Amino acid sequence: MATRALLHSQDDPEPARQSPEVLDSRLALSAKGLRKRYGDGAEALCGVDFAVRKGEIYGLLGPNGAGKSTAVQILTTLLLPTDGSAQVFGRDIVRDQDAVRRSIGVALQDTGVDPLLTGFEALELQSRLYGATRRAARERAHELSSMLQLENFAHRRIANYSGGMRRRLDLALGLVHRPRLLFLDEPTTGLDPLSRNALWDLVRAVRGESGTTVFLTTQYLEEADTLCDRIAILRAGTVVAEDTPSRLKRRMRRDVIELEPEDPGQVAALLRLVRRIQPAATLEREAVRVHVSHGATIAQELLAAVAGAGIALAGLRVAPPTLDDVFLELTREDGGTDTGEEA
Amino acid sequence: MLRFLEELWLLTGRSLKVTLREPWAVIPNIGISLFFLFVYDAGLSGIAQLPAFGGVPYLAFILPVALVSGSVGGAGAAGQALIRDLESRYFTKLRLTPVSRTALVMAPMLSGMIQLVAQTVLILLVALALGLKLPGGLLAAVGVVVLAAGWGLGFAGYAVGTALRSRSGRTAQAATFIFFPLLFLSDTFVPLTLIKAGWMRVAAHVNPTTYVFDAMRSLLAHGLVAAPLLRGLAAIVALAVVTLGFAVYTAQRTLRDA
Prior knowledge:
- Chain A is an alpha/beta fold and 343 residues long.
- Chain A is built from 13 helices and 14 strands.
- In chain A, a hairpin with a 2-residue loop joins strand 4 and strand 5.
- The radius of gyration of chain A is 23 Å and the shape is elongated.
- By secondary structure, chain B is mainly α.
- Chain B is built from 11 helices and no strands.
- The A-B interface holds A 76-80, 98, 101-102, 104, 106, 108, 110-117, 121, 125-126, 128-131, 173 and B 3, 7, 10-11, 14, 17-18, 21-22, 84-85, 88-90, 92-99, 256-258.
């Protein structure tokens, strides 16, 4: 597993590594060997470790079916792990469920709110279920509706809310009891870019104001890149990489060249041509993509060949790897461990 | 304990509030009960002159059928309320709070019971307007409401259990059709002595609804009489133990690892 070794390189130790006890007290969430096997024998998680530090925004990134939702459901006490253990601020997620539930706020993609309630009523009820008095619950509901810009809709039924409004309400519901750890499951899936940016700002504000730790899952690389302090990449129930987005990109140590033909019909011909020089080239949507160690040099060689073959290009990109590239590399079916290394 | 009651109250209040916001989910059920009362009383009241009725007016005889069918609806509403929350995924959201798991399952039942009591009182009032005489007075009326609520609770356990088990509105709805044999394989329209088919008599003896009908009829016609009332209560307790046990067992299984 070349990639794996590469991404967990030993030459780059964590700053200020401490003894395990001290380290533990700095953790909001820690999980060891989490495993989940469903009744039908399918293994959704195959021994996963997480260590989320207090106050950080931690992203769990993975394609559909990688086990993100299962992980979140286990960590939020909705699902029991088949094996392994996890603690939230030192409280066990299986033995001490109530304490865990009190300290976490959750906005899961697959939860909903009663559409017949108004947003305000849902917020008030949620507060009261965490033990707030009626008055405190009302105050908190006012506070959160203004913070999440829901005032104008607070007294309308949730059935009439747009997708973006529902997400904001979901976030507000997760925040009523001022949790120390907030779980967000694909918080921006299905949102337009404007609402997405607004939600990112909110998440940053929540962390900034109260030091809340955030654990989020996403399939958007951009989201992980701009929002998260550290990310873990999950593939088929296993964490294949865990680091800061910038270090993950740096550790890949490879450039990406992308060539897009003017005529989409020529993309197959272009791929054949590029593969003569770079056998590991792949087709990503309408473009031919290849990972190389010296982008500029190889690009010249490729351009000469393309010009010789008379293929007109609509686009050319030579760039350091994006998180997309890291992700595609790590989550490819074949494991993506042997592409491009030889270049 | 106080905290549990508060949670139960908050969740039940929420459930009632949304029920009132969608009254058309409940009104047909009340309508059907009243329809039973009007139609059977209007069409069959002459047979009460048969000696087997012992001089009990047919209105008092058929009223329990309307009440029991109404309480089935109220209890079914408990299952439907839970299904609504399961389908909207609000139930998952509630499971993420530190609220007692028992309160989560009991709240829709309690809200169903409150609806059912309101409905029973309404049907009783309509029957009084139609000329029902209550020799047992208010106490008998309260007794009838308690029996309807008890029977409804038993049915609510069944409805909630099947709702949790199937997690689908349609399946849970289909499961409430058990209400037909329960309601009609009994001394629904005439006293047992007038039922000639042997199998029907056996079914009526086995059916707990028969004892509930008899207890209610005895309350309506004669006031508090120990023997039929105790038999009715025993039938209700037996039913409730079985169905609530089923609901609790299913809830534990599905809430533990859903």
